[in-house]
């Protein structure tokens, strides 16, 4: 008996053209269907060290992200990380992690369908996000590697600073808020269409 893999759809498939037509100071592209796993593990525990060894990364501390490897680790809470990997079978990664953890206490849950990821870049990113986000994106406050759970235009997002002065960020947003957030981004960029700010 053949088991078919379910087809995954991007919640922003209809938004590719509008997002591509933003002013040159803000580029937005969706990174759809990334593998996303919630890892619950006590920091510094034997299980945490086993995960780090299996992924060849260091799990991040509070409000930070480890973005250097194929599997990114985003801090979500005191004993929770979101592991983000390229699109592909999550079962392989889950299997590796569970084998590494063994009998130690930790949980790994596939939450890939829960969110989509928007990659924003350009010199206007910080200015545009400031219109709807209370987080101070000044590099002295939120340097590269910062990872914050916050609101953007009242939509819950995980914001990861990837470039100096927030010139490159990831926004992870729940699929149910994705179209709303895309609408907000297009609207927030309207004043920059004729010039580049």
TrEMBL record:
Pfam families: SoxG (PF04268)
Protein name in the entry: Sarcosine oxidase subunit gamma
